[in-house]
Amino acid sequence: MHELALCQELIAEVTRIAAAHDAVGASRILVMLGPLSGVEAPLLKRAFLVARVGTVAEEATLEIEQQPLSVRCTVCGAKSEVTPTNLLCRTCGAWQVEILEGDALLLKSVELFLDTAAEDHPVEQKAAAETTSAQLGNG
Ligand SMILES: [Zn+2]
What we know:
The chain is α+β, with helices and mostly antiparallel strands.
């Protein structure tokens, strides 16, 4: 199951972040899901409930935000926001475009429980950890 493997990658990353901040657990995990990632949000949520058992994310909620799909035209160089069914340059109409974002699952932020603090301690993960289906296909 593709989504389960992705969730395990995601939780492995959250585990690394939690360890780096001396956290005992994660309370909220926010991911950005690209429309061309090939991942179904409902399946991802369901897989997360399985994958989180026995990990630092056991009590965490998974929130999924839709990532915009944007491309750069290799003909005129313009950047456009497009839809999965219309991958054309908005400036010149060319189909020769490369995808800038929208084809991956990205870890956006993690909120952690710290050992010493009773309240949630939000930790913004600025450098998003990218987990693409291509990378997972190798393993
Ligand atoms: Zn163009």
